[in-house]
Amino acid sequence: MINLLHIVRNAVTHDSRVLKETGVLLERFPDKNLVIAGFHDQGYAEQELIGNRQVHRWRLKSRPLPKDLFSQAIKFFEWQYRLIGAYKSQPLQIIHCHDLEPLPIAVKLKKLTGAKLIYDAHELETERNAGQGIRKQLSQWQENRLMSFVDHLITVSPSIRDWYAQRYPSIPISLVRNIPQHIDANSPVNPLRVSLGVPNDALLFLYLGGIGKGRGVEAILEGFASQGVKHHVLFMGSGPLLQQVKNYAKQCSRIHFQPPVPPSEVISYARGADVGLSLIEDTCLSYRYCLPNKLFESLLSGLPVLASNLPDQAKIVTDHEAGWVIEPNAAALEDFLQRLEASSARQLRMGLSDRAADLRWENEAKALLEVYEGLGT
């Protein structure tokens, strides 16, 4: 019997936000049966326990179809059919919908079960980098049509919260930033500098997460490959620009790549670097207002961050004296790297943990629990 249902559009294992939120909920409501419904991907079990979370990964026969709108619609309707058939008779109390794509399914399940509906917008969903033209129009239409069924909206940055509050003033909104869980000061440190051969007078910069358009990848590659730059960069992630990263890594000994690791191992790797990178480009409102995982993962690992001059990111960095802010382009990055001395970055790292002491997942978890308790869980 399922009481709390989380719907996601991935295989769950690497979704740190969903894993953190569900972990908090199971700790607070141990008598509730919580299930995460995600997509099946090759190499994963269709049903699995992650910690004490039940994960259902739904295998779609239509998944191999291309990504044109017609094919995507076929995939969606198969997904909807499978999920509604599986959960419509369950005694659901809360349906927690992650991102916009599953929201129509969540609304149908709400109507069938009487459950309360939480919409957890991990981005500014209708203003994303990938959503342009007809896709953007469809997402705006869909969100506008379905928001009246939402009992509570959760989002990830102050600017995105304010944008939704202005657009949907009647819907309660809470801010739950994607800050990592508490880091033990004695937790292991992966010796990345040694394994990658970074010299003592150079710094190791770390890029975490999706390797795609709009995330400063091309600028980072060009900047670190430039003559006169002595610092190194490690990419840990996957995405559409992965091959470009690998090509640069073959040509430039200062550029490195490593596949992504589970969320539980990210901090160990991050602590082995010197500076975090969060050079999101101002290509859409969602990116302009974002607070990326990599920003907080770096700061809580004790790394100063080189961030884009975007409002929410810049405020975190400047308020906590936690790094530098530049325009996310190759010329600005190259100029910064050529001027940056390793000693100044290491000095900035001193005391950073104390300056960032208020950035704790425990504070965000309180806001999440207040939402659930307010909905009668």
List keywords for this structure.
16 helices; single chain; Rossmann fold; alpha/beta; 6-stranded parallel β-sheet; 8-stranded mixed β-sheet; globular; 377 residues
Task: Please explain how this structure is put together.
The structure is a single chain. The protein has helices spanning 16-28, 69-87, 103-113, 134-146, 158-167, 192-196, 217-225, 242-251, 263-270, 285-288, 293-300, 311-319, 330-339, 342-349, 352-355, 361-374, and strands at residues 4-7, 34-39, 47-50, 53-58, 94-98, 116-121, 152-155, 173-175, 204-208, 232-236, 255-258, 275-278, 305-308, 323-326. By secondary structure, it is of the alpha/beta class. The two termini are 15 Å apart. Helix 7 packs across helix 13. The mean pLDDT is 93. The chain folds into two domains: 4-179 and 361-374, Glycogen Phosphorylase B (Rossmann fold); 192-355, 3-Layer(aba) Sandwich (Rossmann fold). The chain is globular and about 65 Å long. An eight-stranded mixed sheet has the order 3-4-2-1-5-6-7-8, with helices on both faces. Helix 4 links the parallel strand 6 and strand 7 (152-155). 41% of the residues lie in helices and 17% in strands. It contains 16 helices and 14 strands.
